[in-house]
Amino acid sequence: MSSSRTLQITYVGMKSQDVPIKSGTIKVMMKSDSEVLQEVVVTGMQKMDKRLFTGATKQLNADNVKLDGLPDISRGLEGRAAGVSVQNVSGTFGTAPKIRVRGATSIYGSSKPLWVVDGVILEDAIDVGPDDLSSGDAETLISSAIAGLNSDDIESFQILKDGSATSIYGARAMAGVIVVTTKKGRAGVSKISYTGEFTTRAIPSYKEFNIMNSQEQMGIYKEMEQKGWLNSADLFRTRDTGVYGRMYRLIDEYNNSNGQRGLLNTTEARNAYLREAEMRNTDWFDVLFTNAVSQNHSVSITAGTEKSSFYASLSAMLDPGWYKQSKVKRYTANVNTTYN
């Protein structure tokens, strides 16, 4: 028999062996094949062919979603995916837009989607409702889990819209899932990138809005008074009474020290008080707003080989604030390394 011929022997849990075929009895000693696996983390997500995926999903490229002048990239999802509703209920930085993926109502009281960034679930720092976002409460400034991410670090969004999201991430995903993938280094690509944005916002003008001035508003109040809708008896039982309520309270005031009333209850005195109110044309836009120039700078470095890749970035957002008490400074740092 030719000595060049071999017999391959395999067995489950044992190392395979190639034994030369010779005449006579062949004695084989098998060795165990055991390997110690490192600890693994199961996230529930895997990359698979789109043709094999049966769930309802929508993938969005971050370059198509990003809008210049918006530091929070989640606001750019508006109108990008069918069935996904995005409402920007507040312009304050850090407040999460109202995003609905699987309907606007829920028996559990919350219908916000779950955010997952590179396999890590992001929880909102404070759970606030849509009505709280425009309340002016300082807690709303940290209500968004995604607002702290640099938009230039995001590569793509994957929106999971059907029940498959619940099977992957559990009950927290009953309102849908938005999976965020950040940028990573690529083999054979080495570059340094810089992005700079300057956004100007001017003080609004009353000419841009159909708003009555004080004289026009007082004309409507006088017409309501003539029709009996602004009488003193009704206004004293009302919480917010406006200029007519203040006038009636001045008439009702009496100073015991000098024997004088706050306002005489005569036609001449009342008309003089109301004429003075007609001239109170306060420019509230000028009082509450200011001309502002916001800056957003981002620098990233990427490099990679066949065995490893590297991506690092630094960003700074400086916003002096368009209206009072809206000044924001945000600094971010991101490092992604991969080794095969």
Automatic annotation (TrEMBL):
- Give the keywords, sorted: Cell outer membrane, Membrane, Receptor, Transmembrane, Transmembrane beta strand, Transport
Pfam families, per database record: Plug
Q: What Gene3D superfamilies would the database entry show? A: TonB-dependent receptor, plug domain
Compartment(s) of residence: Cell outer membrane
Tell me the membrane topology, using the record's own terms.
Multi-pass membrane protein
Residues annotated as domain TonB-dependent receptor plug: 53-177
User: What's a single GO CC term here?
Assistant: cell outer membrane
**Entry keyword annotation includes Nucleus:** no
Q: Does this UniProt record's set of keywords contain Cell membrane?
A: no
Q: Which domain of life is it from?
A: Bacteria
**Family label:** Belongs to the TonB-dependent receptor family.
Which protein are we looking at?
TonB-dependent receptor plug domain-containing protein
